[in-house]
Amino acid sequence: MHLVEVGRVESTHPWVGILAVMLAAFVSTLSSRLTNFGIADIGAALGASVDERAWIPTSFSVAQMLMGPIAVWLGLVYGPRRVLIVGAIVFGFAELFLPMSTSLNSFLVLHFIAGLGSGTFVPLAIGVVVRNLPKAMLPLGISVYAMNLELSLNIAATLEGWHIDHGGWQWIFWQNLPLVLGLIVCVYFGIPREPTKLEVKGKGDFWGMAFAGLGFSVIYAALDQGNRLDWLSSGLIVGLLVSGAILLLAFIVHGYRNPNAFIDFKFLTQRNIIQLVVLLTIGRLLVLSSNFIVPQFLTQVAGFRPQQVGEILLWVALPQFIIGPLVGVMLRYVDARVTLVIGMSLVIVACLAASQLTSQWSETEFVPSMLMQAVGQTMFLTSLIYFMVRHLNPIQVITFGAVVQIARLMGGELASALIQTYTRVSAQIHSNLLGIHVMSGDSMVSGRIAGFSQGALTRFGILDPANTPKAIALLSGQVGNQAATLAYSDSFLLAAATAALGLVVIMSLRSPPT
Asked: What is the model's pTM?
């Protein structure tokens, strides 16, 4: 299937096309992120337990992963314009009816359908940038596409807090309806109509799509639930990983034996491509260092509410409207490898600065490192996708869309699983090490307990022995907070080390083909 010619068909309304790409990428990522932030309120409304509600975000992202290969084939046969409009309609109707669900099962079904609809957005949006925008606007289109990752991930907390405080959890889904309508209008007017490719219709690599879609979806589910179920201690996680590995092995064998496989494996072996896919995965991990570690620290240690956390993440989200286009303009005159190095270096410095956090940190202390990371990550992601596009010929555009979708979702989930597991284990280690020094009878420990008992826990300055257990609980809480602080500091160091590895990979990049 990848051998079919898919040449350029330039849009007559390129600015509308750019807006369509921005909305497609924005809606796809924002929907998943909003559900993660609002899962407690959604689960409570559905009467779902903590374990049951954990499958809500998984159902959406698994559907997106499953739809990726199919969307690529549908876009090749019917054209991105038709597929994006149908996908937007399916997504919109699912989002409309989701808040009306009366049970967890019906909610999961509708959420899965919404994931299928939005699963067409990202793989086809990048194809629109490459094939339908004038070449002079290519860097700008890519910068808009890339900046949406930072924008949607970091604005979600603010939107979720606003909806919960003013309208209810239902608006987590209903807010997407005007966005979907705008997307449909922009796609209709901004993306050219293409004839149906009858020579391809009915000749798709259906086995390859099934192996890839199911294999990556199953492994994604295992990664998403692994930290909660303690990985290999769970038979479910082991079963998902083994079955996913078998399906992906079948996909690889099938792809190499089938000259018309839906993913062109020769594309993956070309100069620089493997390094660029690795860098895309690294980029997803680095994004988590701002939109996962910081919110978790502020919620767990500093006691911030979700809306307060969202206000802080705006320091990363809002500058994207300036940073993204500026990077796009810069790429017209500067080698993308130079901006990759600059962006990655800024991320390293930002992560090292944030790793100095203490339990007393709040918004003010995080702002400088977050601003620096916002600039660095946007510069890195925009330059990375632009550099990848420069390796494509028209035949490989569809393959590229599939690779970006798989790397985006799977790379993000690998990074999330790594960061969450690393932070949890690190917190346990620090808690144990700190606990060794908190011994009953130790003079400093006794003094601290006495101080708690004689402080806020007493009335009229009279020591009450009944306050001793409360004082011990306060001391235990301080130890837990300090252990969590050290764990989040370690996570920033892990992000900095990963960025340093990325810098080494960037140095290995050669110039793209002519």
From this structure: 0.83
Q: Could you report the per-residue pLDDT of 83-98, keeping only the tens digit for each?
A: 999 999 999 999 999 9
Nearest one of 153, 62, 123, 58 to 405, comparing CA atoms: 123
- Any idea which architecture 1-202 has in CATH? Up-down Bundle (1.20)
Tokens of 493: 């160091």
235-260 pLDDT, tens digit each = 999 999 999 999 999 998 988 887 77
The tokens describing 57, both together, are 């975000």
270-421+487-514 CATH fold: Growth Hormone; Chain: A; (1.20.1250)
Q: Can you give the residue ranges of every domain in the chain?
A: 1-202, 205-261, 270-421+487-514, 428-486
Of 217, 205, 220, the residue nearest 265 (C-alpha)? 205
The confidence score (pLDDT) of residue 462 equals: 46
Tokens of 367: 């702002």
Determine the Cα–Cα distance for residues 370 and 289; give it in Å rounded to an integer. 10
Amino acid at 246: I
User: What phi-psi label fits residue 201: left (phi over 0), alpha (psi between -120 and 50 degrees) or beta?
Assistant: beta
Q: Sign of dihedral through CA atoms 438, 440, 443, 448? A: positive
Nearest Cα to 286, choosing from 405, 150, 403?
Answer: 150
User: Measured between alpha carbons, how far is residue 342 from residues 15, 149, 168, 348, 502 in Å?
Assistant: 29, 19, 42, 10, 12
State both tokens at 106. Answer: 């019906």
- Map tokens 């910068």 to a residue: 143
458 residue type, one letter: T
Lookup result for tokens 């051998």: 3
| CA–CA gap between residue 411 and residue 284 (Å, rounded) | 6
The answer to whether the CB of 123 falls within 8 A of the CB of 401 is yes
Work out the angle between the directed axes of helices 336-354 and 468-507 (0-180°, nearest 10): 160
Residue 209: partners with Cβ closer than 8 Å, 6 or more residues away: 69, 70, 73, 262
CA distance 143 to 329: 9
Tokens 């337990």: give the residue.
49
